[in-house]
Amino acid sequence: MTVSLPLVFVLGGITWFAIKFLGVRVWVVVVIALFGFWLSHTVLAPVIESGTRSGVDVVNR
Questions:
Q1: Distance (Å, rounded) from C-alpha 18 to C-alpha 35?
Q2: 19: nearest Cα among 28, 9, 31, 32
Q3: What is the DSSP letter of 23?
Q4: pTM exceeds cut of 0.70
């Protein structure tokens, strides 16, 4: 049986776990998310996307 989860749900679960159990402050998560949005508008965005896709492909094999 194949289960398909969007990556955003997986990252959201990791974020919730980090805030709840590892004691990461919410403002740190917000700053990291804002940095990600800012980074998505740079020339590095295609490299990050292809690296993410490659990593997901490695996990799915």
A1: 18
A2: 28
A3: -
A4: no
